[in-house]
Amino acid sequence: MSFGLNKWLAKEQIVTPITLGVSVFFILLLFQPFGYNNYSYSRLLGDSFISSIVVLLITFTSRKVTYSVFRKRFVSQILYIQVLLDITLFLGVTFLINLISGGFRNIRFIDWLGVSFQDVLIFELFFIPLSLFIKHYFNLVNGDLNSSFNSSEDFNLSLGKVCLLSDTENDILEVFPQEILLIKSSGNYIEVFYLKEGKIFRNILRCTLEKVTKQFYLYPFLFRCHRSYLINTDRIEKVKGNKRGYTITVTGLQEAIPVSRSRIDLFHEVYSDKK
């Protein structure tokens, strides 16, 4: 897992709000919903521009907050938190705008709340699939563009699960990346240690660690520390050694996991960022 991934994630968090903001501008300008067809062209243009800027700033803020504060939660949980934060920020900002502009002289607060909540939900129904589409695009760009993707696997990924498939395609393990503790390579097999309902489970698949690592490019906390080990850096319990050599233990497991010499500097940067 390289730091190039973090750049892709940062770009995705910028591209998504910009795309949403621009989309809102053209939707309001071209389709004129919510009574916008009664506005003069100059007011329609101005309101569409202001609305697009508000959408851009709010969605950018909600994504920065959720990925920074709630990064240890499941991807599906982050999506729910993001939607709730979007709605809260939209209502808060529109309330302030309405209050400052004197809009409450012409409409009761309860009526404004009902209309605003309805409008925000309509746009959220548009934002969610568009956000997932953009995220999927960045998955493809950051991964192998020539790889074929199974549609059910893509669907699970959008919900937060990753589907680990054995080379024989007889064994499948669906797991939330955040629940993975350790993946250990043993020849042509991997051992996956993961949490489920507070208990540690172990699953063996006929598969290479190299192949599995490529599936986790979206999750920078899963770090390939050694040719035989991939660890969840959010689950690190103890680190021994120094820059010349580290051994790691993760939550619930006693095994001392080595960090290869070629990965020491990179691990040092990753681990230092989490202290």
TrEMBL record:
Keywords: Membrane, Transmembrane, Transmembrane helix. The chain crosses the membrane at residues 14-36, 48-66, 78-100, 120-138. SMART domains: LytTR. Coiled coil: none annotated. InterPro entries: LytR-like (IPR046947), LytTR_DNA-bd_dom (IPR007492). Residues 222-273 form the HTH LytTR-type domain. This is HTH LytTR-type domain-containing protein. The lineage of its organism: Bacteria, Pseudomonadati, Bacteroidota, Flavobacteriia, Flavobacteriales.
